[in-house]
Design a protein that fits this description.
The complex is a heterodimer of chains A (about 425) and B (about 500). Chain A has about 425 residues and is mainly alpha-helical. Chain A has a single domain (about 35-130, about 185-200, about 205-410), classed as Rossmann fold, CATH 3.40.50.1110. Chain A has helices at about 1-5, 10-30, 35-50, 95-105, 145-160, 170-185, 190-195, 200-210, 215-220, 220-225, 260-275, 285-310, 315-325, 345-360, 390-410, and strands spanning about 60, 80-85, 110-115, 330-335, 340, 365-370, 375. In chain A, the strands form two sheets. Chain A has a five-stranded parallel sheet with strand order 2-1-3-4-6, with helices on both faces. A two-stranded parallel sheet of chain A has the order 5-7. The longest helix of chain A is centred in the C-terminal third of the chain and has 24 residues, at about 285-310. Chain A is globular, with a radius of gyration of 23 Å. Chain A starts with a helix and ends in a 6-residue tail after the last helix. The model of chain B has no long low-confidence stretch (mean pLDDT about 90). Chain B has two domains: about 5-195, no CATH class; about 200-500, no CATH class. Chain B starts with 5 loop residues before the first helix and ends in a 12-residue tail after the last helix. Chain B has helices spanning about 5-20, 30-45, 50-70, 75-115, 135-150, 160-170, 170-175, 180-190, 195-230, 235-240, 250-280, 295-305, 305-315, 325-345, 350-370, 380-400, 405, 410-420, 440-460, 475-490. In chain B, helix 3 (about 50-70) crosses helix 6 (about 160-170), helix 6 packs across helix 8 (about 180-190) and helix 9 (about 195-230) runs antiparallel to helix 19 (about 440-460). Classes of the chains: A mainly alpha (about 425), B mainly alpha (about 500). The interface of A and B includes residues 4, 14, 208, 216 and 228 of A.
């Protein structure tokens, strides 16, 4: 075979060599800096959880809102380290494996995991298998391949008789995969997918993740940006005045030049390092985006309240996460970062916290520590989910004055 | 499962491995290979919806027995009855799934012209709202052609069901053609296939070319075309005004852009089909042959969707009388054939009008071609070349303008587009109606098409799809790497194929 390639098809061999050289180059060049901020952040998280150091005393898990919590190094006042591992919008099903992977290479376990994500993460609509997000054929997230194939056969007949497909899950179920699949594919490797999923979903996730094993494909968006859409701005450096570092600077146009992706990711990188994983997404908007979000904030809050008045929580991933922490003898604290004020009365939150209390009561290593006021005024939010700069400041102040002392009391830091 | 997706690559690798593995069996290798082909074809088709398999199996079984019946019967009257029965059944299946709702809604609209109170629910209770099975027009036509060929005693009926079913369902060409004839494909099903490196080389080239055309050219031109034609029907019905008021130049460029888009989309898909078939030892009919190099409409239709054109010629135009019954009848036959070809593409008046336009254009060309000025034999080469290039540009330009029917969501939109084209005052190089300026539009199109045009020109000049293998090594390495890079970095994967809707 090799002799045929060498002598009969030299051009094919030559093309393979060219592509191999490009692939090697893609592995050497830090292409994650040329990708969008969502991918960059996910890649940073992946690098951290796959490493064996550094080790932290407390880690925070959650979503885009809890991402606003800053971690910190050991200080005289707070003699423990905290790192925020939150990742925006990936649904409720990855936390267990994410935590396992973080612990896998580390000798010293954290004293506690603080789960600070929005309770809305556990809405039933998001608890769906990735290969059939609307659950047209799937009955549950962990069903076997045989069951799924049989469902595809017999449910199809049922739908034929009924004359329509069912609406088992609405578009929000499909949204997690359709919109945020890049996060799964950049956070987990092919072997991670193999371990993490079962049945038809495993086949689906393998199918989706195998192309990502090739860096030319994995970073195709960044490569495209820096080859075909190359701009002079890609290499420009912006030096900004000091007032851009304050909350008031966020609304000033001069603090929001047209950053290149690389420069934006470098800034993000510096921020993650400085804040120990924390990034307030609300601070990353330019004045025009900020204005647009303000315009629709009240409507968005109304829709959110309306949505969560009808939605039900699915508590299995919560319990799975507690069990994983217990398996590693790590304590877990549930401390939901505050939501917008109108969410205080929604039915979903009431049910969620009742069920969470029931589950937590069964595990001595689990506890709920809520913020002094778990609902903030709407004006502290950019839209219905993410904090204004002032909202993030209040959040961090309350987290370290009220929540963390309770966490430390419940799970004292062990000596490294 | 679409060709332009990762899952198809996995599927093809798996089929390829098993298919050639069973070819080494000491006995029954041919049968084993056809069994692998049939099962993989059913798997491929059932990937969309296994219920469609019932339909294709019914169609296969019907035509299998009809073929045997036609071969065995000696009475011409009975043979005629049997072929009528077979064609009726096939057309009924096609009619129910593809045309029933169209004719019912057209009928209701007509009745309501006279009696606005009729059908208060809009006739909703009469509609089937059936989902169109993928590729139904392709395999139904292929199957019908087989029975007609047996009826005409051009081929013998196939008595081996496995071979016949593999012919009807051969997965590389099942959902988007080429529409093969029994004389071409069934014969290959009957023979042993040999693994050759030449087939692998040619197949790999066709697949690379197909992926490049579909994922890069077609799916990157699509957003440009949609600036004028809108993304989808829903967007148009939500706001029909968005389809009007465009600049004339932008409409022309988007229309010509659509001609290139559908060419790249369909020929790209067909090229992957050809390549996949070559991997399995089969040669499929070339469905396109550099149509942008056509110098007139007749030439264009010899280069565009060649297998459908051949089908319509053999099974509609010639049975209607072809050119044997005088000039007027020839034009009528041509017009009818093109109208039906239009309707084959979809159940919509826009396709009907498009077919009529094509028919009228072909007839006009036949009438006026003798009156067109001709260059003398001794004209200089540059003059001949220029005239040829102008003819090509004009032919493909007119074809592109037919997109105003083919691509439009309804006749109203076609009308609005033509209003823009005919309104010279709307011609501007600046952005119009939110669509980029004509200069930028043209440059955006040229950037996406330039490599494809070079490849097609080389195929046209050499008369071979495999011209690349006669080029120096460095040219081959460069082109393979460039195409691969285009597909990998700039390609859009998993997008729909336009011809699936037909």
């Amino acid at each position: 075979m090799s002799s045929i390639l060498r002598f009969k098809y030299p051009a094919l061999l030559g093309a393979v060599v060219v592509i191999a050289i490009l692939e090697i180059a893609a592995r050497i060049i830090p292409l994650e800096y040329t990708s969008g901020a969502g991918i960059f952040l996910t890649e940073k998280r992946r690098a951290l959880i796959e490493a064996s150091s550094p080790e932290y005393d407390y880690i925070i898990l959650g979503d885009s809102r809890s991402l606003s919590l800053n971690g910190h190094p050991r200080t005289d006042k707070e003699p423990y380290t905290v790192y925020n591992l939150s990742i925006p919008a990936m649904g409720p099903r990855y936390f267990q494996y994410y935590l396992e992977k973080y612990l896998h290479n580390r000798k010293h376990k954290p004293a506690a995991v603080v789960f600070a994500g929005d309770p809305g993460l556990f809405q039933r609509s998001w608890y769906t298998p990735n290969h059939d997000s609307k659950m047209i054929y799937a009955d549950s997230v962990e069903e076997g391949l045989g069951h799924y194939l049989w469902s595809r056969f017999h449910k199809r007949i049922q739908y034929l008789k009924a004359g329509k497909y069912p609406d088992q899950r609405d578009q929000f179920g499909a949204m997690v995969w359709e919109v945020f699949s890049h996060r799964y594919l950049h956070l987990f490797s092919v072997s991670d997918m193999m371990e993490q999923y079962t049945g038809a979903e495993r086949i689906f996730m393998l199918r989706e993740s195998i192309p990502n094993a090739f860096y030319l494909y994995r970073y195709r968006d960044g490569i495209r940006q820096y080859t075909f859409d190359l701009r002079a701005n890609s290499f420009r450096k912006h030096d900004l005045p000091d007032f851009c570092n304050a909350c008031s600077g966020l609304v000033r146009a001069e603090c929001h030049p047209d950053y290149s992706r690389v420069e934006d990711n470098q800034k993000l990188d510096a921020l993650i390092e400085k804040n120990y994983g924390g990034v307030n997404l609300g601070d990353r908007l330019d004045p025009a985006q900020r204005f647009n979000y303000y315009q629709m904030r009240d409507t968005a809050v109304e829709h959110q309240v309306d949505w969560f008045s009808r939605e039900e929580p699915e508590m299995k991933p919560v319990e799975d996460l507690i069990r994983t922490a217990a398996k590693h003898d790590i304590k877990i604290v549930f401390s939901d970062v505050p939501a917008v004020e109108p969410m205080r009365t929604v039915r979903y939150h009431k049910i969620y916290f009742e069920r969470l209390a029931q589950i937590v009561s069964k595990y001595p290593g689990a506890r709920i520590v809520r913020f002094p006021d778990p609902y903030y005024p709407v004006k502290l939010f950019i839209e219905q989910v993410h904090y204004e700069c002032e909202g993030a400041a209040r959040l961090n102040q309350e987290f370290y004055s009220s929540v963390m002392p309770e966490v430390v009391k419940f799970a004292p830091r062990s000596a490294p | 499962m679409v060709f332009n997706s990762g899952v198809y690559i996995y599927f093809l690798i798996a089929v390829f491995t098993i298919y050639w593995a069973v070819s080494r069996l000491p006995r029954g290798a041919h049968r084993a290979q056809n069994t692998v082909l049939l099962l993989s074809s059913y798997f491929f088709y059932g990937w969309w919806d296994w219920l469609y398999l019932v339909l294709i199996f019914a169609s296969t079984t019907l035509d299998y027995f009809v073929g045997i019946g036609l071969d065995s019967l000696t009475s011409e009257r009975k043979r005629k009855l049997l072929i009528t029965f077979s064609i009726s059944c096939n057309l009924t299946i096609l009619g129910i799934f593809k045309y029933y709702d169209f004719f019912i809604t057209s009928f209701i609209s007509m009745v309501r012209q006279f009696d606005p109170g009729a059908f208060p629910d809009g006739g909703a209770h009469l509609l089937l709202n059936a989902i169109l099975p993928v590729g139904i027009s392709f395999y139904t036509f292929q199957s019908m052609a087989y029975t007609v060929d047996v009826y005409r005693r051009q081929v013998r009926a196939e008595r081996n069901f496995l071979d016949f079913a593999s012919f009807v369902c051969f997965f590389p060409q099942l959902v988007a053609g080429p529409i093969e004839r029994a004389g071409d494909l069934l014969v290959q099903m009957k023979n042993n296939r040999q693994f050759t490196w030449e087939n692998m080389r040619n197949g790999a080239w066709m697949i690379l070319l197909g992926f490049y055309m579909k994922t890069y050219v077609a799916d990157n031109i699509s957003p440009l075309v949609n600036l004028v034609y809108l993304d989808h029907k829903f967007a148009y019905h939500q706001n029909p005004l968005a389809a009007s008021g465009h600049g004339g130049l932008q409409v022309i460029l988007a229309s010509v852009g659509f001609a290139f888009q559908i060419y790249s989309d369909f020929w790209g898909y067909s090229a992957i089909a050809m390549g996949s078939a070559l991997f399995l030892g089969f040669k499929l009919t070339q469905n396109f042959n550099a149509p942008q190099m056509a110098e007139n409409p007749a030439d264009l239709w010899r280069r565009w969707h060649i297998t459908l054109n051949r089908w319509v010629t053999d099974y509609i135009y010639i049975p209607l009388g072809g050119s044997r019954l005088g000039v007027v009848r020839k034009y009528v036959n041509l017009f009818v054939a093109m109208l039906l070809m239009g309707l084959w593409h979809g159940a919509s008046w826009t396709f009907f009008v498009w077919g009529g336009f094509m028919g009228a254009w072909l007839i006009a060309h036949q009438i006026f071609r003798d009156y067109l000025p001709k260059l003398s034999e001794g004209a200089p080469a540059w003059k001949k070349g220029t005239v040829k290039a102008l003819k090509m540009a004009a032919t493909f330009g007119v074809f592109g303008l037919s997109a105003t029917c083919f691509r439009a969501y309804d006749i109203h939109q076609t009308g609005e587009l033509w209003k823009s084209i005919l309104d010279i005052s709307s011609y501007s190089l600046s952005p119009v109606h939110g669509v980029m300026g004509a200069g930028d539009f043209l440059w955006a199109l040229v950037k996406k098409l330039i490599v494809l045009l070079v490849i097609d020109f080389m195929a046209y000049r050499t008369g071979s799809l495999y011209w690349i293998f006669d080029r120096p090594v460095w040219v081959r390495i460069t082109l393979y790497s460039v195409l691969f890079f285009f597909v990998l970095i700039l390609g859009e994967f998993g997008k729909d194929v336009i011809y699936f809707a037909f």
